[in-house]
Amino acid sequence: MGLDGGTYITRSDVLRGQSWALAQQDTSRSTRGGSVSTSGAQQGRQPEQDSVRAARWSTCTLTGEPLREPVAADFLGSLYNKEALLEFLLVRAGVVVSEEAQHRYANQLRQSGVALDHLQSTRDMFAVQLPGPSTSAVVQEGGGSGKLPCYECPINYVRCDRQPFSAIVGCGHVLSNRAIQQATDEQCPVCGASFDRELDIIAINGSAEAVERLTELLPARRKRKQRHSAGSKKRQRSGAERSALHVPSQPDLQPVVAA
């Protein structure tokens, strides 16, 4: 497709654009690259940050393809096409999906390194419900070659390119942090689902500090999941035992007296 404004950029496009901008800012005559001027780097920093943020909100972390329903997130706040993430986890678990899937998995590990180590099973992901795109604005990619959707909080109508957003684990709704903070009763403002403010609020595409905090919470979150799983199995076992001990009453048979 031509540069008609209807194409989507990928993560590779963003990285290529950043490399080009960095090269243009280098005014050194050294054949080895020299140093990049501070003023030039500062001038290009904000557009680069905007492009990276837009790409993270619009593309799958694993494949770089445009996000499409159903969408999932991990507990560090990255977004994925659910189908791609499930395939990754199946291959990681040793389930042979296809030779093509095996190659994709190997490439994803090679590109991401240890950044995917926290993804071990389906317990490390949850479904999310992204809000509708803003009708008033669309983020324009730095070079002007692609348009990216800009999501809008359904509660206070702020946009994801202007305010931080988070997902509520139980129901998956993605809202602005401000809207979640105003929910003093710890219930989702959209559907009323209850949540734990400490463990169930996941910053989506958050800052380095937010990701670091979420990483520190991973062990506590996994322990909680294990407790819930153990409790569920115990309840199932108890129900099965009660069913096995229950002896149905015999019908009261009355003798038939011949007339």
TrEMBL record:
Region named Disordered: 23-54, 219-259
Compositionally biased residues, Basic residues: 220-237
Stretches with biased composition (Low complexity): 27-40
One BP term from GO: DNA replication termination
Domain of life, per lineage: Eukaryota
CDD domains: RING-like_Rtf2
Family: Belongs to the rtf2 family.
Protein's recorded name: Replication termination factor 2
Provenance organism: Symbiochloris irregularis
Lineage: Eukaryota, Viridiplantae, Chlorophyta, core chlorophytes, Trebouxiophyceae
